[in-house]
Amino acid sequence: MAVSSKIIVRVEDLHKRYGSEEILKGVSFTVRQGEALAIIGPSGTGKSTLLRCINRLTEPDRGRIWLEETEITSPHTDINKIRQQIGFVFQDFNLFAHLTALDNVRLGLLKVKKLPKKEATERAMHELARVGLAEHAQKYPAQLSGGQQQRVSIARALAMDPKLMLFDEPTSALDPELIGEVLQVMQKLAEEGMTMIVVTHEMGFARSVCDQVIFMEKGVIVEQGPPEQIFTNPQQPRTRQFLGKISELYGGAGR
Question: How far apart (Å, rounded) are the C-alpha atoms in residues 44 and 211?
Answer without folding.
Answer: 24
